[in-house]
Amino acid sequence: MSVAIIDYGSGNLHSAAKAFERAARSQENPQKVMVTRDPEAVYRADRIVLPGVGAFADCRRGLDAVNGMLEALTEAVRVKARPFFGICVGMQLMATRGKEHVTTDGFDWVKGDVEKITPRDENLKIPHMGWNTLEVLREHPVLERLDLGPKGRHAYFVHSYHLNAADETNVLARADYGGPVTAVVGKDTAIGTQFHPEKSQRFGLALISNFLKWKP
Amino acid sequence: MILFPAIDLKNGQCVRLEQGDMARATVFNLDPAAQAKSFAAQGFEYLHVVDLDGAFAGKPVNAQAVEAMLKAITMPVQLGGGIRDLATVEAWLAKGVTRVIIGTAAVRDPELVKSAAKKYPGRVAVGLDARNGKVAVEGWAETSQVTALEIAQRFEDAGVAAIIFTDIARDGLLKGLNLDATIALADAISIPVIASGGLASIEDVKAMLTPRAKKLAGAIAGRALYDGRLDPAAALALIRNARAAA
Q: Which residues of B, range 107-126, sit inside 8 Å of A by Cβ?
């Protein structure tokens, strides 16, 4: 079993790789975690992780710049039904479109647009940076036994945009930042988190462990 | 073997497409319920229905026509097209569909098939449509590099009633069933396989009754029944005789 973390020049790879390696080591059957920019390796992987930091359009361009990567990723997830984990902008790319400064096409796996968050309270700063609890809207194997809810564990966010899903059933969990913020989306064999599990300590590792165990 | 007459629905009408191309549709009957009745009267035992608009939209579109057919006949019906979640599976089974066919969702969301088949054993079939052996999704508009066998193997031991294997290149062209590919698939898995796409004449029915096709559970007949190339009475008599001899 192998887990491919896609390297397309969009940061936070090191911390993501460390977190996945650590979670993988604690599994009964450790899975091999690799950071790769080889589409063939992504196509053959059993699980795929797409990190991403920065602007939506930059991430999309970075991914398109790796020849054959988008095709390999799409096929692996949408036809071979390999579990997929998108982190931050990697999650936002699952949307139909990104509307950060310019409108950019996403993968269209989760219908909806990535839009600027607009907290009701003007004192709340953008970008939203910090720790928030999560409200689970829909049960999902990846969210099992995580001790979530208003008094539960906290996830680490740093973002100005979020995925405004057209179909509410695709939103698995949300946070509150002067209004609802999409925190976790899930569709078919793909999930994505707006927050950074690799920076969310024990909760993040437990979430990654759940993903590594998930057999959709 | 079971010979399934096919009714494909587009805009509430009964049509046939060529190679799954929505632009190449021929309307054969404005009243699908009347068509279903006519198949029942001819002696068919199981009806195959596809909501073509539903396959493209990802949700049921010709529900009214399907319900009218269910009311018009007592013969069992298997239905595909736009069935992509458990709620839709359950709604159709509750309305009297005997077996639902999951296509695109079986590719993208295998868990749906597994959980539906577990909850409704024998009432969930998987539709795998292939172009040159590779699976196509989204109303056949997209083709992948993944083989039908690879997808079919996911559902071994999941309680799936049947795999309906369609060769898109032949569908609606009356070039004969792609028996070699269908038998190869049936030999590699334990789930019953139904052949679809290209059934042209009584020769295809005879081929289905030969020993090498013994593992196949049935075949779907579309255009050949509508344009008269296949005489239903002769085909059904052949099948009855083969059953009696077995």
A: 107-111
Omega before A127 cis (within 30°)? yes
Q: Give residue A8's pLDDT band: very low, low, confident or very high (50, 70, 90).
A: very high
Using CB atoms, pick whichever of A79, A189, A216 lies closest to residue B137.
Answer: A79
Partner A contacted by B138 (CB < 8 A): no
Say how many CA atoms lie within 13 Å of B87 toward its Cβ. Answer: 3
Whether ipTM > 0.90 holds is no
Structural domain spans, chain A: 2-213
Q: How far is CA A74 from CA A69, A188, B83, B146, B230, in A?
A: 8, 13, 22, 12, 41
Q: What is the mean pLDDT of chain B?
A: 93
Question: Which tens digit of pLDDT belongs to each residue from B132-181?
Answer: 888 887 666 667 788 999 999 999 999 999 999 998 888 777 889 999 99
Model confidence pLDDT, tens digit, residues A69-95: 999 999 999 999 999 999 999 999 999
| Low-confidence winner among A45-49, B16-20, B43-47, B52-56 (lowest mean pLDDT) | B16-20
Q: Which of A21, A59, A88, A162 is catalytic?
A: A88
In angstroms, the CA A108 to CA B157 distance is 32
Which CATH number does B2-245 carry? 3.20.20.70
| Domain chopping of chain B, boundaries | 2-245
State how far residue B36 is from chain A, nearest Cα, in angstroms: 34
Q: Which of A4-8, A30-34, B203-207, B231-235 has the lowest mean pLDDT?
A: A30-34
Closest CA of chain B from A168, distance in Å: 14
- Among this protein's residues, is B129 annotated catalytic? yes
Place of tokens 């295809």: B204
Check if A88 is active-site: yes
Look at A78 and B109 and tell me if their CB atoms are within 8 Å: no
Beta bridge partners of B16: B26
Contact indicator for B116, B102 with CB cutoff of 8 Å:
yes
- The answer to whether A101 is a known catalytic residue is no
- Which residues have C-beta within 8 Å of that of residue A130, sequence separation ≥ 6? A156, A157
Taking the CA of residue B245 and the nearest CA in chain A, the distance in Å comes to 43
AA letter at A84: F
Question: What CATH number should be reported for the domain whose range is A2-213?
Answer: 3.40.50.880
